[in-house]
Design brief:
disordered N terminus; 5-stranded parallel sheet; Helicase, Ruva Protein, domain 3; nucleotide-binding; transferase; HLD_clamp_pol_III_gamma_tau; metal-binding; Zinc Finger, Delta Prime, domain 3; Rossmann fold; alpha/beta; 3-stranded mixed sheet
Length: about 600
Amino acid sequence: MGDSPDNSGNPPWETEEQDDAPTAAELEAAGQDSMFGGAAKETSASKPEPETIPEPAPAEAPVEMNQPYRVLARKYRPQTFSELIGQEPMVRTLANAIERNRLAHAFLMTGVRGVGKTSTARLIAKALNCVGPDGQGGPTIDPCGQCEPCTAIAEGRHIDVIEMDAASHTGVDDVREIIEAVRYAAVSARYKIYIIDEVHMLSRNAFNALLKTLEEPPAHVKFLFATTEVDKLPVTVLSRTQRFDLRRIPTDLLQSHFGKICGLENVEAEDEALNMIAGAAEGSVRDGLSILDQAIAHADLGGEGQVTAARVQDMLGLADKGAQRRLLGLLFGGDAKGMLAAIDEQYSLGVEPLALMRGIMDLVHRITVAQVSGGEADAPTSEEREALKEWAGRLSPGQLHRLWQMLLKGHDEVRQAPDSLVSAQMALLRVLHAAELPDPGKLAKKLEHLATTGVAAAPADAAAGGSGASAPSANISWSQLVESVQANGNHLAASIMQLQVRVVSLETGALRFSRPSQFKDDIGPQLRDALMGATGERWIVEECSEEGEPSLVEQQEAEQQLAKDALLKHPLVEATFAAFPDAEMVEEDTAHPQGQRNWSKRA
């Protein structure tokens, strides 16, 4: 009763409630803001909705940074057929089938690991179930990636696309579940699709249980199989599927693909480093991306942030190309001591002996291909191309094939040996010494020839000796040896023998020679190989400083000079020069046999 109304005429307690009401609303709104991040304010009728997507709140930034890292193989998995590299024939076939509405009820994707078998299966599932952004589209080789089926399949949550790993579901009961489920129509998609990975792991009974359903499935069901071992599938399954063999990805295409990914990841990478990674991937995109992931991490540890060839080589335990070429050159040159030193050097740098053997085998293979094709050798640098080209011209096909067989045997030994370094040393030493042995085929032909004709008698003129030099053996002619080397196809060695070699002594299996002073390079290994290839015998070849017989080219030039001098002394020629003092002798043609020249007079 003591209370009196305020100036507004309201009781005091009513005034307090009116003062408190706005405060409570503000507290409630503040509580909603704290719980829903301002959603209550945005949905309030008093404020219009924003026209643009708001910037994320600062509190969301740490959450985004703490997201788990996705490896490159998952992050860059193809989401459209255009992103699937190296499989253009398969994509073209699928596009034609979709366009003509000639879709098989079962597809089989085969190929080595990491070429895109499972990715292709998911892309086919997208292509068959895509409805387009407007929801009115049909099957297409270019799924939109925006509609509900596309996004759900990409995220692996579509109820009508069932993916099963046959490695962990191998029995009849697992297949029986599929057989029971195919009778029911798809829930929301156009087709109910079963993707079975590593399908070759299913048991025989499971395959038999699936055969009838696989041959006559309902119209709304498609089967997509993927396997790395297609030979383990029963022929009854193969005959019921449309098969696609996914090819290994070429090295150059892999290198280009990895370069684009490095650009997207803001990572600098050397071309040679990417080429090493692509080669180590052996045609597998997934393997290559895993190696690239490791190489990027390796580069970050170094503080440079760049993927370099040296770091990749160190990471993979590879020998650099220059070291491989030097080692092969020492092997061809017969330098056992230098070759062992080169192997030890590479081993101390962390190069695995098995990788070293593979590198040498790769060089021999590329030399052989360059020799057969007659074109430029396949090599990343001009220096390596020149070296391979030189070896391709120097070695015979038989030598390369024998070398490959021995390296292949050595590779297997290194892989199985308890001490791989010792095994690699012994294998390459065996190859080096075997290079000096006669060719088995030529040796057999020579023995057959000797058995039928007997040992040939010595030429009558073979005993003629040269001035100032010991006479060659009576049963060996240097010119005949040169002709044999020429006939054996070693034209370069025959040319060297004609032009440079001055024979000091010549016996069966032994040659001592000197050369004109302008020639400095070592031709001993080349002469040994040429003589062994022509005679089937090992030769001891030694260069000395003693004076030898003139080379065959020097002898030919001397004979020509003698013929010219004799011609000038002919009475008719002397009379002609007397009548025409300004006349001169001119060489017209050099294409006469036996090195003869045709001379004419020009007044």
